[in-house]
Specification:
Elements (H helix, E strand, L loop, with lengths): L1 H23 L4 H29 L4 H24 L2 H26 L2
Helix pairs in contact: 1-2, 1-4, 2-3, 3-4
């Protein structure tokens, strides 16, 4: 579990590091910022895969169940807003939800690694 926690630190820190380096370095700053923003998708993919794996290993864990429900809510809201609703204020919810889910998954892995 500690390995997953350290991998999570890496996947959370990589976009932050790339964006910070992109702001500091003037010549290739735009490319680094773009790579940093694109690497957030890898962070979400990592967290989704390991969240599902952890839920399969511990199906009674309420925190993991809440995390997976939040992920399902995010994707359903995204699809419904793109196909049916088209409300602008829902995009604010869609922007904030992955950040909240990433923080929540990080706290779950931290708690499990330090039990």
């Amino acid at each position: 579990m500690k390995a997953i926690n350290y991998l999570n630190y890496f996947f959370i820190g990589l976009p932050i590091l790339l964006v910070a380096m992109g702001i500091i370095i003037p010549n290739i700053g735009g490319e680094l910022v773009c790579c940093g923003l694109l690497s957030t998708m890898l962070t979400g993919l990592f967290q989704l895969i390991f969240g599902i794996k952890m839920l399969i290993d511990e199906p009674e864990d309420k925190d993991l169940q809440s995390y997976i429900c939040g992920v399902i809510f995010f994707f359903l809201l995204w699809i419904v807003n793109a196909v049916i609703a088209h409300f602008d204020f829902i995009y604010y919810i869609l922007f904030a939800t992955p950040i909240i889910l990433a923080i929540y998954f990080s706290t779950i892995t931290y708690k499990k690694a330090h039990q």
